[in-house]
Design brief:
The complex is a heterodimer.
Chain A lengths: L1 E5 L5 H10 L3 E5 L7 H5 L3 E2 L3 H5 L4 E4 L4 H14 L5 E4 L5 H13 L3 E4 L2 E2 L1 H7 L2 E6 L2 H14 E8 L3 H29 L4 H9 L6 H11 L9 H18 L4 H15 L10 H8 L4
Parallel strand pairs in A: 1-2, 1-4, 2-3, 4-5, 5-6, 8-9
Antiparallel strand pairs in A: 7-8
Chain B lengths: L1 E5 L5 H10 L3 E5 L12 E2 L3 H7 L2 E4 L4 H9 L13 E4 L5 H12 L4 E4 L2 E2 L1 H7 L2 E6 L2 H11 L3 E8 L3 H29 L4 H8 L7 H12 L8 H18 L4 H15 L10 H7 L1
Parallel strand pairs in B: 1-2, 1-4, 2-3, 4-5, 5-6, 8-9
Antiparallel strand pairs in B: 7-8
């Protein structure tokens, strides 16, 4: 399949590489030309912009920072697209923004899928991302061969925007999950109890989670290297809280969690992994 | 002086009346022409036309986007207002939007004063509003005689946006206080104690406050008809949280109160008074 890949950051670059490894003919574009070089070395073709990249493709995928970037890139795609093209955005943006972009592309005869991912850089490199997809069944079927090179757990959740709704739900669970583990650790430590023993004990019971296992271990190791940067988690929780505001939805746990992430960004922990919320808790409780 | 006024709602209409009674010639524009009915003012066809005819223009509009549209959009004030003229925006909008509008207007030599108000509809009617101004201090002095027709406490807070930051702080404190009063009333009621007596007892002590007086009284009487519509506080809490986020500041209490306001909206009480936060607690 002929696939264009737009946006070659920490996530986009390995995802595009996996498409090449999967045997697809890949055209790339990135705002900074230097980002394209590793892909060109692996056999990709360079495009001068989103419009040129979209020309003659079966599928276009974008992986950029935020909704305005997606909108801008997709306007270029619409300009270069032939009717029947499928455009997929795998960035994490607000569900409402995804729906708006989908409508604009539909007007240009382009089928749009919102398909954000979970699994981080590690998952992107290994090709084991979780992909949550919103959009039409037909478009999903056409994009599936590309998705299967990028991820393992690929779920078509529902109509346009449903992928982003699912990703936001994912960020609620992971955001509160990381904070929950950090709070349990702070609680144990302040009580003079060994956190690693607490973790070991909890792993066997109902508090077991992947976050307790993986993030919990990294907290014990005090390895705060990202992973998933806390400013990005803050951005995603802001999507959650804005959507809750618009819908009239009561999310007290997410609200409290989002404030902790605000404080992390404000106090210089933004570039560290989201498990650095443990440092913030320790600072607040005088446990440094 | 020829004074323009845009936004003739619950707040704007009595404010415009005060300016007129003080002897100023009033020019108005409204998106819905029926809003200008019964006003002895010159009705303009567009904000631009109103801007051309006035030395000072007031706006009292609900959303950031609408203020921006009226000021900078097609046929907006920016197309009509002369250099040296002043736009006094009494709306509650994002500090960032205020700064953006100020910068655009400044290109044409027009001054913006962000001058949000506190005191509600009653304060607007009684001309007792608290006015918090952001912008050039000299500009504030030029329009101070006009503002003095609207309120008693006029405070210069700082450069453009500073008035809106002060208003955000005002809303944080006030609505959190309403929530605190609602929770106290809820506890008293659930414990089988007379809410009116509790309120009366507290009024003499350290918990005394204007919110306890006014909003507590509404809760005791279960009078949820709007003084200020709760949906406006809900809107303001969106602005407050966004401002906190941009500054990287944790506002945990504000965040929780915002969820109570979200629930209030979901219950369909957005056009009722914010005293309805009591009903939110009762719904749980």
């Amino acid at each position: 399949m002929k696939v264009a890949f737009l946006g070659l950051g920490i996530m986009g670059r390995p995802m595009a590489l996996n498409l090449i490894k999967g045997g697809h003919a890949v055209t790339v574009w990135a705002r900074r030309p230097a980002s394209m070089q590793p892909l060109l070395d692996a056999g990709a073709t360079a495009a001068a912009g989103p419009a040129e990249a979209a020309r003659g493709q079966d599928l276009v995928i974008s992986m950029v920072a935020d909704a305005p970037d997606v909108a801008q890139v997709m306007r270029g795609v619409a300009a270069g697209a032939a009717p029947g093209l499928v455009a997929v955005d795998m960035s994490t943006i607000a569900p409402a923004a995804a729906r708006r972009i989908g409508e604009e592309l539909a007007a240009a005869g382009v089928d749009f899928l919102d398909a954000p991912v979970s699994g981080g850089e590690v998952g992107a490199i290994a090709g084991t991302l979780s992909i949550m997809v919103g959009g039409s069944e037909a478009a999903f079927a056409r994009a599936l061969p590309a998705f299967s090179c990028i991820g393992k757990n690929v779920v078509h959740v529902g109509a346009s925007g449903a992928g982003q709704v699912t990703k936001a739900a994912n960020q609620i669970v992971t955001g509160m999950g990381v904070l929950a583990v950090a709070e349990a650790y702070a609680f144990a430590a302040k009580n003079g109890v060994d956190r690693s023993k607490v973790r070991e004990a909890l792993l066997g019971g109902f508090a077991y989670s992947k976050i307790l296992e993986n993030h919990g271990q990294r907290m014990l190791d005090r390895n705060f290297k990202p992973g998933f940067k806390s400013w990005m988690h803050e951005k995603d929780l802001n999507i959650v809280m804005q959507t809750a505001h618009e819908l009239g939805l009561c999310l007290p746990g997410s609200a409290a969690t989002a404030q902790m992430f605000n404080a992390m960004v404000g106090s210089g922990l933004g570039e560290e992994d989201s498990i650095a919320v443990l440092k913030l808790l320790e600072r607040l409780s005088g446990q440094e | 002086m020829k004074v323009g006024f845009i936004g003739l709602g619950v707040m704007g209409r009595p404010m415009a009346g005060h300016l007129q009674r003080a002897g100023h010639e009033l020019f108005v524009w409204a998106r819905r022409p029926e809003s200008t009915a019964g006003l002895a003012a010159t009705v303009c066809a567009t904000p631009a036309e109103l801007g051309r005819r006035c030395a000072v223009v007031f706006t009292v509009i609900t959303s950031s986007a609408d203020v921006e549209g009226v000021a900078l959009g097609p046929d907006g004030l920016i197309e009509g207002m002369a250099p040296e003229s002043v736009l006094v925006d009494c709306s509650t909008i994002a500090p960032e939007t205020a700064r953006h509008i100020a910068a655009r207007l400044a290109e044409k030599g027009i001054a913006l004063l962000d001058a949000p108000v506190s005191g509600g509809a009653q304060g607007a009617i009684d001309a007792t509003l608290a006015i918090m101004a952001g912008g050039d201090a000299a500009v504030l002095e030029r329009v101070r005689p006009l503002l003095a027709c609207l309120g008693q406490r006029i405070v210069y807070v700082g450069p453009n946006g500073a008035g809106q930051v002060a208003k955000a702080c005002n809303q944080m404190i006030m609505v959190a206080a309403i929530q605190a009063v609602a929770e106290a009333m809820r506890l008293a009621g659930a414990a089988g104690v007379d809410c009116g007596r509790v309120k009366q007892a507290l009024a003499g002590g350290s918990a005394a406050s204007r919110v306890l007086d006014v909003m507590g009284e509404r809760m005791v009487r279960r009078d949820f008809a709007a003084g200020i519509e709760a949906r406006l506080h809900h809107k303001d809490f969106g602005l407050v949280q966004e401002a906190a986020r941009r500054s990287g500041v944790a506002v945990p209490l504000t965040a929780v109160v915002a969820q109570q306001l979200n629930t209030l909206m979901a219950q369909g009480w957005g056009r009722d008074d914010t005293a309805s936060l009591l009903r939110v607690l009762e719904a749980a």
